[in-house]
Amino acid sequence: MPDASAERSQSKSSHPYWAQRVDELKAPDAPPEALNLNVAGRRAMGPLQGFGQLWQKTFRIPLTVASVTPAEVVAEWKAELPRFKPAENRFYPSPGGIAPGEVVLINAWTPGGPIATGVVVLYADEESFTLMTPEGHPEAGWVTMSAYTEEGVTVAQVQGLARASDPIYELAFRVMGSRLQDYIWEHVLTELAAHFGVKGQPVEVDRQLLDPHVQWRRAGNVWHNAQIRTILYHLAAPARWLGRALGRDSRRL
Known about the structure:
The protein is α+β, with helices and mostly antiparallel strands. It is built from 5 helices and 9 strands.
C-alpha cells in the first residue's frame, strides 16, 4: 500500500499552481496594525454558495507604451499588490506571498463602516493568480488578475465571477456597492499601469449579469457577515479594555 504522505506530496507536486483543499482557512500572523478577523475557521465560498445575482465583471488596461511581458507584469503585481489598492483598502499578504494556499488579510473602510476579512490564493502561475473569498466576505466567488498579449501589446486584466454573499450585502451592492467595487478595480489597474509608466490610459469595463435571480436558500449566510462582526468587534472594544484592566488588577492582588 502506498504511503499516504507520499500520495499527498505527489498530488501537490503534480498541481503546483493550485491550492490544496482545506476544510477551514487558517489566518496568518498579522502585523500589529492589521485587524485579523473573519478568516480563521471559515470555509472558502464559490459563486454557488452565494446569495445574490451572479455577475461577471472584466476590467482591462492596455500597457501601450510599456515594454514588459505578461510574466513581468504579474510578478510585479504579486510583489506589490498592497500598494496598488485604494488607501481605504489595506491588504496584508501572509509571509508566503501570493502563492497557492496563502491567505491575504483585508482591512477596509466602506460607506457601511469598517470590515475585516481576507481571501485565499486559489491559483497562481507566472501570468495569473486567482483569489477566492471566505464565508462572510461581501462576495462569494473569485477574482483573477492576469496579463496577456494582444496585437503586440501587454494587457493587464481583472476578472471577477461572484454573487453577494447574503441579503444585506446584496442590498448594499444594488445601492452603491457595485460602483464602489468598479472603482476599486479601476484604481488597481490604473496604479499598476502607472507603475510601468503608462498614464492616462482608460480602463475598459465589461459587466455581464449571468443570473438575475437570488438564492434564498443561502440567506442564512448573513450569520457570518464580516462587516456586522467587525462593527460589533469595534463596539465591544471598551468592554475588552475593561476586562484586560480588571485582569491586570486581579493579578496584582
